[in-house]
Amino acid sequence: MRCVESLLYQVLSSIIVLQLNHAVHGEKDLSKSILDFTIGFTRFHSSPDVVGRRSLVWSPLSLYEAMLMVAEGANGETFTEMQRITHLQTKAAAREWSTSYLGEVKKLAKDNRQYNVSVNIANRLYADNDFDLDNEFNENLKKFYESQLELIDFSQAEASAEKINQWISNQTNNIIKNILKARDINPMTSLMLVNTLHFKAPWAKPFDSDITSKENFTLNTGRTIELKTMHLTSHFSYYHDKKHQSQWINLPYKGNNRYVLTLALPDKDIELRVLEKKLLRNSKILNNIFSTLDNRTISNTRVQLALPKFRIESKLDFAEHFKRLYNVKAPFDADKADFSLMSSGRSKELYMSKILHKAVIDVDEAGTEAAAVTVVQMLSRSGMILHEDPVRLSFSRPFLFYLRDINNKVPLFIGRFTGMFMSSE
């Protein structure tokens, strides 16, 4: 039989668009902050009209890093509301988190090069030639977020979009192309903050493509469809959580086992929406589950795993999430928004309009590719049971997945697979 090393290939981009009106504490606390951030947005996407029906993927890490950079330029009430979004009390805490994580990612990438594991995060600030950019804001982004500044003429919308798209494409190994259109650049655009995350790693325990076969997958509606399903029998970190009526497993990647794909399958006759509702009550629930699953003493459970090949593409607008979830108003209000730390000129006229996020994940025997783009537009005013016996774990019904950095408890990508898909537009 022919074994194929399955690659995890994650690509993420965040684009922050700012437009100006020219006319008129410790590590645990930081880990908890991003998990709280993740829980909040996942809870929003678990509303009755979405949960249990459409497959979904998004990147907490991308959106979080983008929000930290936006918060760097916020002042007054606007910054207070950005604190509620990021779950961090001070800019010092945000800077500490970003500096520490970016540094660790660089070291990890260097150490794991021999395993074909690569992780890269890049930030870039595009400023219009006529925009009066505050030097301290620029230096802070450069120092704490490793952002590079590039001047650009946003009045030339088509050329600007092409230039930024090329940089994004280069950073994402040509996975993300032509994200920005000329129509996306408003004549009042003054700044764009772009964040990219690129992740690539092979499975520590690869699947065998020769034994992939079509098998039944039961949708939440009860209807059955056929999906190509991968098979692997090996030892994994696994447990059955009776309290939350679900089975959990970690699929590790090569290297130092820092990155894993965690899968959660509701018990039979338990709907996915029921499991999600239980998990989203507070961040402690997921944190405890992950801590238990990541415990090396439970990594010797022999599992007969069946996992469908799947591809998910999601496009989301997070602006309403911020408003409704955190009851924030100032950053989105043309009269109240205060991003005065971004410029020594007229930046108080900036406000956030859209926070678009697009993500793609493709899982098969040969590899997994994932890509995501976040666009934040700012307009101007105009009881867990451990198993010792072999278990069968067939993901033949809707399930959850979490691509995680287990050392720092950082979720890179999370989502659900239901067999039903969101439109890419």
UniProtKB/TrEMBL annotation:
Signal peptide: 1-26
Pfam families named among the record's database cross-references: Serpin
Gene Ontology molecular function terms on file: serine-type endopeptidase inhibitor activity
InterPro entries: Serpin_dom (IPR023796), Serpin_fam (IPR000215), Serpin_sf (IPR036186), Serpin_sf_1 (IPR042178), Serpin_sf_2 (IPR042185)
Keywords: Signal
Family note: Belongs to the serpin family.
Protein name in UniProt: Serpin domain-containing protein
Upper taxonomic lineage: Eukaryota, Metazoa, Spiralia, Gnathifera, Rotifera
